[in-house]
Specification:
The complex is a heterodimer of chains A (67) and B (263). By secondary structure, chain A is mostly beta strands. Chain A is built from one helix and five strands; from the N terminus they run ββαβββ. In chain A, strand 1 and strand 2 form a beta hairpin. In chain A, 30% of the residues are buried. Chain B is of the alpha/beta class. Chain B starts with 8 loop residues before the first strand and ends in a 20-residue tail after the last helix. At the A-B interface, strand 3 and strand 5 of A face strand 4, helix 2 and helix 3 of B.
Chain lengths: 67, 263
């Protein structure tokens, strides 16, 4: 199992989980989002191939209302 | 000179007919925000970058589904950042989620009570972002020397506050804004402090290239009507600036001729 943190919440994932699978599981895969893992941005083109690792800190962001 | 002969606002090489930039915060819902945006005729709208709410309904529309990046220039901000690193990180996330869009509004805050800019962190973040290829519109204090330094770093617009963010106190130091304008070769846009339409006109009458506001519209009793008022106020102030105002006099100057009086 992989223990990862997504937006400050702990998640347990099976080994060999790709980022895209996590996004689909969280139902955010289709939206306009950006993803950072351990401080590094993962381009959208790499979502399907990027394999998650134990201890990853994942941030998923979107645009919301603001001044 | 008619209004038709005015030059467009040019930011980072792109022309805008509107000199009003509005925010997308504090609205009741996306529809009200969109209606205000249409009434304002603004072409640039700011957004914030925040964590996705993982519990949310995946079918619920998001802001950018309603306010389309194909129709409007989306200006992601770094609101809530108190240091240069967080601001740079936020801009990089914004660029990724907007498919490489380089235009950002940099704001690095110093204090929660005043939301005054932390100028040293702002300067540091601006250096990094410009070097990284961003087009930086930067929120700053109304200090003319700092404004010039931000321009020299390569920011595409310098945006001094008129008064604290969300305060609605208007343009508190018009003389500083004038000094900033005298030295500037990039657009100067008053960002923050506008409370009502006359404040926006004052900023434009000073010669500012534009005005950015959020709360003045979103917290108005009728945001859509205030958005319309702001459109007109910015246009009126701009035209008054271009027209050139009459000199101020301490005493009266009769408008009707003295010659030809029969009494």
């Amino acid at each position: 199992m992989l223990n990862v943190t997504v937006n400050a919440t702990e998640h347990q994932l099976p080994d060999q989980t790709a980022l895209q699978q996590l996004l689909e599981q969280l139902a955010v895969g289709s939206g306009r989002i950006a993803v950072e893992i351990n401080g590094e941005i993962v381009p959208r083109s790499q979502f399907a191939t990027h394999q998650l690792a134990d201890g990853d800190k994942i941030e998923i962001v979107q645009a919301i209302g603001g001044g | 000179m008619s209004e038709m002969t005015d030059k467009p606002l040019i930011v980072a090489g792109k022309e805008y007919q509107s000199r009003l930039i509005i925010g997308s915060g504090k609205y009741k819902d996306f529809q009200e925000n969109l209606a205000a945006l249409d009434a304002s005729a603004a072409e640039i709208i700011t957004v914030a970058i925040r964590r996705v709410n993982l519990g949310q309904d995946a079918n619920e529309p998001s802001l950018l589904d309603v306010i389309s990046p194909d129709k409007y220039t989306i200006l992601p901000n770094t609101a809530g950042c108190y240091n240069a690193d967080d601001a740079v990180r936020t801009c990089r996330m914004a660029r990724e989620l907007l498919d490489g869009h380089k235009l950002v509004k940099l704001e690095v805050l110093g204090d929660q009570k005043t939301l005054y800019p932390n100028v040293t962190e702002t300067l540091a973040a601006a250096e990094t972002l410009v070097a990284d290829g961003f087009d930086v519109m930067v929120y700053t204090s109304d200090d003319p020397l700092v404004a010039k330094r931000l321009e020299e770093i390569g920011c595409v617009a310098v945006m001094p506050l008129g008064a604290p963010i969300g305060s609605g106190l208007g343009i508190r130091n018009p003389y500083n804004i004038r000094m900033i304008l005298e030295n500037a070769t990039v657009p100067i846009i008053v960002d923050a402090g506008v409370g009502t339409a006359s404040d926006a006109s004052i900023a434009m009458e000073l010669g500012c290239d534009g005005v950015l506001m959020n709360t003045a519209i979103a917290e108005a009793g009728n945001p859509v009507l205030m958005a319309s008022a702001m459109k007109k106020a910015v246009q009126a102030g701009r035209e008054a600036f271009l027209a050139g105002r009459m000199p101020r006099r301490l005493y009266a100057s009769a408008s009707s001729p003295i010659d030809g009086t029969f009494f």
